[in-house]
Write a sequence for this structure.
């Protein structure tokens, strides 16, 4: 992992930092309607990675309050990618989700990220979704 990166548990990043990282990571414009407070109210755990005080990585785990948790929005700034940070964030979030009471951690992803998630310990399963 790139030296000097600090991982913080439940940092509740401020909206501008989160927006900057989202735009850099996803390459899409920031959605002004995105309500980060509302998202994090439903979080079992979220992690932020900081370099020189700047948010460069993030992952969130949402929870049903019982057995099932869902890994959402893992993102790493392009400047520090392919150096293990994404894997560290996902693995640490997995450990904390277990410690905080979830039994199953779900994720969905595009096919090119299959190796990334397999290396993080996920095994493939059939899943589905509906755009509401
Ligand atoms: C996916 C993401 C979080 C990975 O972060 P990262 O810090 O670069 O990941 P790691 O360095 O831990 O990658 C570990 C391994 O996963 C695989 N991997 C990671 N990113 C990959 C990619 N874009 N395509 C294919 N394989 C990838 C590689 O095998 C990599 O090992 P290698 O670098 O030795 O080849 C990052 O690319 C990102 O923010 N992408 C944009 C947002 C996104 O798509 N998030 C996932 C939504 S499901």
């Amino acid at each position: 992992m790139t030296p000097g990166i600090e991982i913080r548990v439940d940092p509740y990043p401020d909206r501008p930092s989160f927006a900057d990282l989202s735009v850099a990571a996803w390459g899409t414009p920031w959605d002004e309607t995105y309500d980060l407070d509302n998202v994090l109210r439903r979080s079992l755990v979220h992690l932020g990675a900081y370099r020189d005080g700047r948010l460069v990585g993030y992952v969130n785990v949402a929870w049903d309050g019982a057995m099932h948790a869902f890994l959402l929005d893992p993102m790493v700034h392009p400047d520090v990618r392919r150096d293990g940070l994404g894997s560290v964030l996902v693995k640490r979030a997995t450990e904390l989700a277990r410690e905080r009471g979830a039994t199953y951690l779900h994720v969905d992803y595009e096919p090119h990220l299959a190796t990334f998630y397999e290396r993080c310990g996920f095994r493939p399963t059939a899943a589905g979704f509906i755009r509401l």
Observations:
- The CA atoms of residues 13 and 48 lie 7 Å apart.
- The helical segments are 15-26, 36-41, 85-99, 114-119.
- The beta strands are 5-9, 43-51, 54-63, 68-76, 104-106.
